[in-house]
Amino acid sequence: MSNLRDLIVRWQRGWAVARALPAAEDVGGALRVRCMQPGRDIEYVALDAGEDLSSLTKLVELVAGEDSPTWLTVPTIDPARAASALVAAGLIVLKHSELLMTADLRGHPQNLPVAPYRLLTQVDPHGGDSAVTATVRHESGEIGARGTMGLAGTDAVADRIETTPAHRRRGLASVVMGALAASAVEEGVERGILIASEDGQRLYLTLGWQPVADVLIATTPGNTYPS
Mean pLDDT over residues 161-190, rounded? Predict the structure, then answer.
């Protein structure tokens, strides 16, 4: 599963750019990331749990040894066995159904917003990389939808694609995704990577993204998932 390991490393790098996080620390079998988000100060991203789940034992010990709220993110092609291993080791699985997905952005569908909405895109440098943001605003000034792509090397990692409740079911997330993909291609990046929530998977499949692996997220007992 060396290809999956490489893809995880590339996803994490672009995700860190999208969120302006410091570089991850390779702790052997995982990347340790300082996220500093509610309920998730630290995150470990497993690199070698694609088929061989033996590496999870060490990672669970590392997670349990942290002094602040910590997540363990596990991309795997055997989610049932991975979930069982995590629970047996004493963690709580917060999310069972996320997907690691990829796409060739050169053929990504493009959708323009219709009145009363308008689209704004912006590219900001982040070290030697850059982040693209796309925002769809209603004529009232309200944000209808928005999202980010972290451009790192040859990859563009989509993150936090959100539609506000009052503006849902109007195709705005598709507009955001198309704008991000077009900007990434203009910047010379052709490959898209993301981790899709269960709610977002239908959208991404419709837009041509393909699943590569399941993703589980676990934490220690007592660390609740923020709303």
Answer: 97
Give kind and range of the element (H or E) at residue 203: helix 201-206
Beta bridge partners of 108: none
Which of 16-34 are b and which e, b meaning 16 or more Cβ less than 10 Å from the residue's Cβ?
bbbbebeebeeeebbbbbe
Burial of 127 (0-12, 13-18, 19+ CB in 10 A): exposed
- Considering the chain, what percentage of its residues have pLDDT values greater than 90? 87
- Give CA–CA dist 151/129, Å, rounded: 6
Residue 112: phi, psi to the nearest 5? -90, 145
Handedness of CA 23, 24, 27, 32 (dihedral sign): positive
Tell me the residue ranges of DSSP E strands in the chain.
Answer: 25-26, 30-37, 40-46, 70-76, 92-104, 117-126, 129-138, 143-152, 155-163, 191-196, 210-219
CB count, 10 Å around CB of 224? Answer: 12
Residue with tokens 């497993």, as numbered in its chain? 46
Q: What pLDDT, on the 0 to 100 scale, is given for residue 1?
A: 41
Position 152, amino acid: A
Are 24 and 157 spatial neighbours (Cβ–Cβ below 8 Å)?
no
